[in-house]
Model the fold of this input.
Amino acid sequence: MSEFIEFTIDGKECMAEKGQYLIAAARKNGMYIPSLCNIDGVTPRGACRICTVKVNGKFMTACTTPVSDGMKIENDTPELKEIRTQIVELLFAEGNHFCPACEKSGTCELQALAYRFGIAVPRFPLNHELREIEASNPKIIKDHNRCILCKRCIRTIIDEQGRRLFAFRRRSQNLTISVDTQLASSISDELAQKAMDICPVGAILRKERGFSVPIGKRKYDMSPIGSDVEKETTDTVPEVK
Amino acid sequence: MNSSISATINRYGADPTRLMDILIDIQAELGYIGNEAVTQIAGALTISEVDVEQTISFYHFLFQEPRGKYTVFLNNSVVAQMMGRQRIAQVFEEEVGCKFGEVSKDGLIGLFNTACIGMNDQEPAAIINGAIFPSLSTFQVRNLVKGMHDGKSVDELQVAGFGEGKNYSENLKTTVRNNIRKKGPVIFSAYEVGAATQKVAHMAPREVIDVVKSSGIRGRGGAGFPTGLKWEFCRKTEAKKRYIFCNADEGEPGTFKDRVILTEYPRMVFEGMVVAGYAVGSDEGILYLRFEYRYLKEHLENVLTDMRNRNLLGTSICGKKGFDFDIRIQFGAGAYVCGEESALIESAEGKRGEPRDRPPFPVEKGYLNMPTIVNNVETLCSAVKIVLNGGKWYQSFGTPQSAGTKVVSISGDCKFPGIYEIEWGFNVHDILEMSGADDVQAVQVGGPSGSCIGPDEFDRILAYEDLATGGSIIIFNESRDLIRDVVMNFTEFFIDESCGSCAPCRLMTVNLKKKLDKILDGHGVAQDLRDLEQWAAIMPVNRCGLGQTAANPVRSTLKNFRHLYQKLIRKDTNFDVNFDMASAVADSCKAAGRVPVLD
Done:
């Protein structure tokens, strides 16, 4: 028997099961809190900070915060929009994100958020860091140019013995994802596909597969990210700065 | 199959949560953690190899390739730089024949940078194979390198006189000095070993918590959470087991007070853990000690043995049945972020020191998901004295909102750097007079994550309600270039030490640095200052204190020393994107063998 509680988002009264994370609780009430590193059913990590909301005046990430009775949540405010926009721009400036040639274009969550926030170009200087593409694995390519270090692959891609195929290496500016060559060499088709599917960007791709859905007919080509959650559809094209 | 590696793994029961100990011990024996070791560990612990490397590669002092028979770590803290680190580094490079970040060709000596090692009152200082070499002169450096070439042991290399107090003792024998300049009524005062333990044995645990609460003491590490409340929350959480951690990571640059407390009063620290354990219902304590203080290992382990022999640790403490508590030492391996309590716990569980998402807090779910107390060294010592003398006694010191004393470590441009135990409520003028500082341009209170204040604020007081600090106080005189020498150094520190988990912490600090570079290169315009302020405003959304305060050096100096920035920016234009055509085409012209026409 689940306990239902009341809370507000941007002044709107909402109801949800006690203990649900704010992102899910908001979704149930037709309100979209943008997120990137969060993935349903997997322990949240709060890495991207894009889902930052204000809970009773304090910054918290919606993916890691359980909803409780009487919470006053701010979501769609200019301050929070500015923060989220900056983070997406920071991520674009960090890697080498060349959308026109990317398999994930149109299904990429980073790109979709940029469109939703009306970003034309990041305000931050581009890093142009030399990064590698790991192609030695028989089934998957790991493209570090596009990796946003969201940790989804680390959290979800596990073998039957519970061992992780992906892991962080080093820290800070040198932080990167490494693939366990030995364990990944015998990765199943299923797990390889899962790795590609859960990656929000085009950093993990299946080999020998490409463009099976044409550009223009992909998920976010059809409707903006978050529109499936929001009850009202937005007809206006977001304003490009 | 390397047998010594297997032996080490088995010594810790092939327990993945003891991975840090396994890695540190293997490296201590073999010099580094090679591929063979990684494979063996992965197999024995049933984790992937990349998972093992995930932990190794996070920490500054763990390596996967040889770093020389003598590994030299020379710290590059702002005070080390102020005290001549650059010249020392130069001489090292000349004598050794390689650059910092490299190992000499014969594999004998490795030279590496490291962040503040807690020796700011005796800089420039280095760690060589775990031993501390403070107050280095170029003469000493030449002798050291000669000694290394002659194959001397690290002990034989220590030719300077040993420090005072316990630094001179049998188990320590270090050239590090305490520099205790001012003793106070709480920490550096009369201490009867075991008296507090005896006393709590005759009290109810609830009473112990009450007396700590009544003192109003707040955490001495920097975060300042009310200690009594923390203990109460921990006790209230139903669990089969609880843990007491003493946070001896002391990573905030300019803080070296816990080093001295651990040197001179280790029994008080451990007794504080026992008292905490009794109060909250825990029988296991862990001292999380920063790797840079590894030279204290034997000293501390001997103290633990002695306390066990005196029935102050172990089972049936003071003869009371059921009063069980023991302590082990867990080393960090070089990560400032591990001073944050949840990152510390992660590290103690054999993982990367990435802070956890809160809630839940450690007092509910901490080490191994059990209720855990993480308290600073000084906090635990204070608890011992509070138990003995009462809450009212403690409140007689300090201010109404900040009870007790604070041990501060003062360094930088002053005649008497060192340790001062002062009551909360002293103002900055007092600090400067005590430490013999003249011609003061600025004071950094609370390390890089604190604030940088100028003379117009020197009548502010050290207190939680005004200038809070974990103990670090760094003094800068008029000769220092605050932006070039201090703000840059601090910003680079945060860049290096970020765990990298949160996007804004990982990325925004670098952009702040690039902006600073632009301004310092003479290409700054008014908009750049506005950008710095606007961009720095995002930092509070990060998960932990490191990220939240990483822009403080910039914000603090923009607020209090704006004129220094104003001096650097261009007045003749509002637009400068720092684009230099010549350097932009340099590579391509070189490749094509062309000379650009740039008029």
In short: The interface with chain A takes residues 46-51, 53-54, 57-58, 335, 352, 357, 359, 495-504, 506-508, 510-511, 514, 535, 538, 540-543 of chain B (CB under 8 Å). The longest strand of chain B covers residues 405-412. The radius of gyration of chain B is 25 Å. The mean pLDDT of chain B is 96.
